[in-house]
């Protein structure tokens, strides 16, 4: 059956095969240790069959001597050590492969930087780098070597049985495909369930992260209980999808055990009728107790590797789901390679022009087309009610969203600013809820760049945040938590604005920067923006405050509902 028919992406399978190839020696050693186990199993069957034959069937009963018991101990010890060594080898290979996959995924995330979003959400990346990759221990440690052992171990047992009775070998050979077929049928269903489970987990993570981030707003709006109910419903969806995966895994094990038991029963019935003298077919020589015990002990061991393979088949489904996520990330990184090379083509900003620009998607535009020209020193106001598309338009101008229609012209030439690092270096963007790192104020301002103390304090003074920082213990070395920590919304916003001033962008995009400021502080803030624009900066700002309208050179009112 083709890969497409099974719902498995051939590229995902290739990715998993390539990842497993990095631990080829460990996988080969694990396979060798599995063959040592099957050799010990055959020796154990021989020892037990010979011992029972000597003690019961022979005219002169003979019990094992010290040498015989030492042989048994050696066989059991060899098998135990082989199992232990195989586990260690598999875990070592799995750890190396998972670390390599995580490192590759992290490198792609770092290369994409902010372009990682909105294609990937935070919950998806978090799940991929932690839970999804970590959960592949069983696939790389057990499933990969078991693929070979599921063929080699039954083949070795089949050859051992063939030396005694060809009919038993034929029964084993004919019944083995039933186990494989039902293993694949259940496995395909499990693959679909694993994908659905992963999607439910990502949705739950996205919902939880969003609600926690906006918990204060939900409390002020009095909607915490409905949102808690929605979160509970999503968690129930995830629980149900998880139980579906577990049910299929249990069904897979039950089906394999059922058909294995039937196959072993066929061997037992054949041997029983043979001993009763119903027929003589199938044996190279007359059967004795030794032959019967030997064959009965080998029969369940013949199906053991296939049963283990079936039990591990759901690991393959999880691995395929993880590989599909990695392929999405890889494809995004490759598609973004050309913008990285074209970054130098973005010229130094001297004039910004929007021509019939529409934000959103082609299928669902957010606002009507807008056009404007902005030159150094000029200030543009985006006005309109909530939901009219102000933030989306700012995202589009910042290069965080691809425009639905229209174009952006830089110095009179149409340019694509979508995911362009060369454009990012010329833009300063302050969103409604500025993101601050869990780091010192110094690190939040510099973002890894090299700036003097004087430059840092000047930027803080321009944002009217110098007094805030001076009052903190450690001042610039004061460590704040995510999104501002114990700082108020206005203080965090001013520090984020100081970061923008420090990096001196040519274009400043502000989304409701005075929403958390009182009237006096907002007035001082606008004064600093005026000084900044007089120095040649361009400003596009979204604001609801009517008192600020006179501050701007031009105004665009968005009504939303684009047609």
Give, in spatial order, the strands making up the sheet with the most strands: 6-9-10-3-11
How many helices? The count is 19
Distance between the termini: 48 Å
Helices and strands, in order, run as HHHHHHHHHHHHEEEHEEHEEHHHEHEHEE
Shape: elongated
By DSSP, the count of extended strands is 11
Give a short account of the largest sheet.
5 strands, parallel
Q: Please estimate the helix content.
A: 55-70%
Low-pLDDT residue spans: 1-8, 338-344
Q: What is the gyration radius calculated from CA atoms? A: 35 Å
- What portion of residues belong to β-strands? 5-15%
Mean pLDDT: 79
What structural class results from the helix and strand content?
A: alpha/beta
Short structural description:
With 563 residues, the protein is α/β, with parallel strands linked by helices. Helices cover 64% and strands 9% of the residues.
Features:
563 residues; alpha/beta; 4-stranded antiparallel sheet; 19 helices; elongated
Describe the structure.
With 563 residues, the protein is an alpha/beta fold. 64% of the residues lie in helices and 9% in strands. The chain is built from 19 helices and 11 strands. The strands form 3 sheets. A 5-stranded parallel β-sheet has the order 6-9-10-3-11, sandwiched between helices. Helix 4 packs parallel to helix 11 and helix 7 runs parallel beside helix 10. The longest helix is centred in the middle third of the chain and has 52 residues. It is elongated and about 115 Å long. The protein starts with a helix and ends in a 6-residue tail after the last strand.
């Amino acid at each position: 059956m083709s890969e497409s028919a099974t719902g498995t992406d051939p590229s995902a399978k290739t990715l998993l095969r390539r990842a497993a190839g990095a631990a080829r020696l460990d996988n080969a050693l694990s396979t060798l240790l599995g063959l040592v186990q099957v050799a010990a199993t055959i020796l154990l069957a021989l020892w037990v069959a010979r011992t029972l034959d000597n003690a019961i069937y022979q005219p002169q009963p003979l019990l094992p001597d010290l040498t015989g018991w030492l042989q048994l101990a050696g066989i059991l010890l060899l098998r135990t050590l082989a199992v232990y060594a195989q586990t260690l080898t598999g875990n070592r290979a799995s750890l190396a492969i998972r670390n390599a996959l995580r490192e590759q995924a992290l490198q792609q995330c770092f290369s994409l930087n902010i372009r990682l979003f909105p294609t990937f959400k935070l919950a998806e990346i978090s799940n991929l780098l932690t839970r999804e990759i970590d959960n592949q221990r069983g696939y790389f440690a057990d499933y990969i070597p078991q693929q070979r052992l599921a063929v080699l171990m039954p083949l070795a047992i089949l050859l051992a049985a063939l030396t005694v009775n060809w009919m038993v070998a034929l029964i084993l050979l004919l019944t083995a495909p039933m186990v494989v077929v039902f293993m694949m049928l259940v496995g395909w269903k499990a693959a679909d369930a694993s994908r659905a489970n992963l999607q439910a987990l990502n949705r739950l993570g996205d919902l939880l992260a969003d609600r926690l981030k906006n918990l204060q707003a939900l409390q002020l709006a009095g909607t915490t209980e409905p949102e808690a109910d929605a979160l509970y419903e999503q968690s129930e969806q995830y629980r149900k999808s998880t139980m579906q995966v577990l049910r299929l895994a249990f069904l897979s094990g039950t089906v394999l055990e059922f058909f294995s038991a039937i196959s072993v029963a066929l061997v037992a019935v054949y041997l029983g009728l043979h001993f009763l003298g119903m027929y003589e077919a199938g044996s190279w020589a007359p059967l004795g107790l030794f032959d019967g015990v030997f064959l009965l002990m080998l029969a369940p061991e013949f199906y053991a590797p296939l049963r283990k393979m079936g039990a591990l088949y759901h690991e393959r489904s999880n691995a395929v789901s993880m590989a599909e996520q990695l392929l999405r990330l890889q494809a995004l990184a490759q598609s973004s390679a050309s913008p990285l090379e074209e970054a130098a083509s973005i010229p130094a900003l001297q004039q910004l022009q929007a021509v019939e620009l529409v934000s959103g998607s082609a299928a669902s535009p957010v606002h009507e087309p807008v056009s404007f020209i902005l030159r150094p020193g000029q200030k543009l106001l985006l006005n309109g009610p909530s939901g009219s598309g102000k933030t989306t338009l700012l995202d589009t101008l910042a290069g965080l969203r691809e425009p639905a229609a229209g174009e952006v012209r830089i110095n009179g030439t149409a340019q694509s600013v979508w995911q362009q690092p060369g454009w990012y270096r010329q833009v300063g963007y302050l969103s409604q809820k500025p993101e601050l790192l869990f780091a010192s104020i110094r690190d939040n301002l510099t973002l890894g760049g090299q700036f003097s103390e004087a430059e840092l304090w000047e930027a803080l003074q321009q944002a009217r945040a110098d007094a805030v920082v001076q009052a903190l213990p450690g001042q610039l070395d004061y460590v704040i938590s995510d999104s501002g920590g114990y700082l108020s919304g206005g203080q965090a916003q001013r520090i984020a604005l100081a970061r923008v001033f420090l990096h001196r962008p040519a274009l400043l995009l502000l989304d409701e920067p005075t929403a958390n400021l009182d009237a006096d502080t907002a007035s001082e803030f606008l004064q600093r923006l005026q000084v900044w624009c007089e120095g040649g900066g361009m400003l596009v700002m979204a604001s609801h405050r009517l008192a600020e309208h006179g501050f701007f050179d031009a105004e665009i009112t968005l009504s939303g509902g684009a047609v």
